[in-house]
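Curious: explain these tokens?
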Amino acid sequence: MAGKSVFFAGGGTGGHIYPAIAVAEKIAELDTTAKIHFFISSRDIDKHVLSKTSFEYTALPALGFSIRPDQFIRFCSSFLSSCRIAADAMAKCDNPVVIGVGGYIAAPVCRAAYKSKIPLFLLNVDIIPGKANKLIGRWAQRIFVQFEETTEYFGRQKTKVIVAGCPLRNSFNNPNPQKAKETLGLDGKKKILLITGASTGSQNINRTVCSLLDKLSDYADSWQIVHLTGRANFDQVKSGYANAPIRSRVADYYDDMADLLAAADIVIGRSGAVSVAEYAAAGVPSICMPYPYHKDMHQYLNAGKLVEAGAAVIVDDIGDEKDRRDWLWEELEPLLEDEKKRLQMKNACKLVGHRDAAKIIAEAVLGGRDSI
């Protein structure tokens, strides 16, 4: 009998793509006959991440929803086109199954699967599901979530929910911090402060940290900085470090985050669902600066899981730059100086997350767990 053809649907950010890759890796490990294909957005980040893997992918024309008349027409047209492309691809394969992983790309593919009576699963790693995922949840056979609190948001569909955790790529099981240090040309004797705005970067985090370089330079004898800027802000941030005496490596992006997070002694970054799971898995103390403009403020809730465990602190990304600068320094300075506190936070990371999430989901998709 031919193996399953597993289609992943979603993208637009690393937070959608990376958990999907983690599950895909596990499926490929458990069933070497399985065929895996990704339906992704046209954003560069999707292609960049998947180009580093062996998985095939198709970029769909789907656009985000808008109520503006001109954009709504384009949304409907792109949605239907994406449905047709996905349906045609799935019709040509043996034993198709679809896993929706979030983002506007997921909806047309999952709709096509539902209409074609193809088995459909949903992966939702944020505490609060978006509108698209709530809709997809009605069609799905099983809904996999990271947090117990998420169950209630699916209402009548909550009987389908399985709290599996956030799937992390295989590299998080065996990170190589020394490789990251060598690749980035870091000093093996100095501790590492990692700054990241996730896959697309954060202008506010970049500016706030750059405004603290005068204070951070007082720690140049024992600390160094790795600053991941995002592609849009690299030049500006790079120039900000030009005269800073503290050792630093500024990059727009870094692929092997498992290695880099394992090497870091403190991380300052956003608190998307995947980010907080990666901080916890790496055992790195974190200062979370949640993205403040989501209506449901879900990044604050994500970060709250780390704070409850004692693994993180939160600094609001609101107010003017001086407010952010002062608050961030108030939290960062004690961590730079207190190794015992950092160790306590590192140990607290073990209280957060599920390390076998990818396996749980892969086995369910392949039909390997009778209990599901």
Residues 368-372 have pLDDT under 50 and may be disordered.
